[in-house]
Amino acid sequence: MKQQQKILIVDDVIINLHLLDGLLKTDYTVLMAKNGQQALQLAREHQPDLVLLDVVMPEMDGFAVLQALRHDARTKNIPVIFITGQDRPEDEAQGLLRGAVDYITKPLNEVIVKARVATHLKLERQRRMLESLANIDGLTELPNRRQLDQVYHREWERARRNQLPLSVAIIDVDCFKQYNDHCGHAMGDRVLQQLAQTIAANLGRPGDLAARYGGEEFVLILPATQSQGAWQLLESMRRTVENMALPHPASLVSQVVTISAGVASLQSATDTPAALLQLADQRLYHAKRSGRNCVIGEAGINSELSDALYSLG
Fold first, then answer.
1. Structural domain span for residue 302
2. Does 140 reside within a domain?
């Protein structure tokens, strides 16, 4: 079932709220706020697709609400339609110049309200679809580098602010150049697609992210994950890929496709997002220098230790 789009209506006059709610609730999910502060809270929590905003309100008027929405990363792209009794051309121009997408004057005309709401919700749906496509890697259908950067910096700030663990990992397909040279780029693309599906399917939680980093490299963002848990997840992925038994006749490591990975976790020595990612990259390099088909994490933990523990178990 298609999910209804959400509209936030903001007006300090209760009768106006109920009038607009009655017009729109059949086709949309309607949220209502009686003042500017309540509107900002609802917008941050529920991420509506459109805001219908009264201009003249006590304490915090519509212009101030719009400015606050535009200065918050969570709400800056939500389209806003001003609804007001101020019908002078200069009033409408001021509203549009401040960032509103449309301007509807009172008394409200039911047909006009419905038509303009439908138009702007359609435009917003199209904008979000295009934004989604811009964040997806065309080959693997995983998030691309652009989305990776956005999510990574958001999770980094959240982890530092709330003193939560955060781990990242970089995965590289072993001897992939040799695979392409021997089997052709079409087969190489197919292998990357299969690996992307496997990596994404083996993530532990909805908040985890797997993205294509470029070429044959993937990056995992693992919020609220300590170093040992991150290493165990990557080691499980390494074994899963090896057990897929995808033939690799030109590999210097194995007769099948394998991966190597470097894992790093948030600590005092990594005081920037770039430093943490660089540490994971250094450990990936160590994994490749150690013979590939292994995972290097904290204190040089790798799959050789895993094999020893596995045999003891």
1. 145-312
2. no
CATH of the domain at 185: 3.30.70.270
Q: pLDDT by residue (tens digit) across 170-210?
A: 999 999 999 999 999 999 999 999 999 999 999 978 899 99
Domain membership flag for residue 1: no
How far apart CA 232 and CA 298 sit, in angstroms, is 11
Single pTM value for the model: 0.65
Cβ-contact 218, 171 below 8 angstroms: yes
Write the Ramachandran bin of 167: left for phi over 0, alpha for psi from -120 to 50, otherwise beta.
Answer: beta
What 3-state DSSP class applies to 8? strand
Classify residue 161 as exposed, middle or buried by CB count within 10 Å of its CB (0-12, 13-18, 19+): exposed
Q: What angle do CA 13, 15, 17 make, to 5 degrees?
A: 75
Q: In this structure, are residues 40 and 61 in contact, taking their beta carbons and an 8 Å threshold?
A: no
Residue 203 exposed, middle or buried by CB count within 10 Å (0-12, 13-18, 19+)? middle
- Residue 244 to residue 200: CA distance in whole angstroms: 15
What secondary structure letter does DSSP report for 71? T
Q: What is the pLDDT of residues 212-269, one digit of tens each?
A: 998 999 999 999 999 999 999 999 999 999 999 999 999 999 999 999 999 999 865 5
**Domain final residue pick, 101, 134, 167:** 134
Closest alpha carbon to 43 in 96, 18, 7, 91: 7
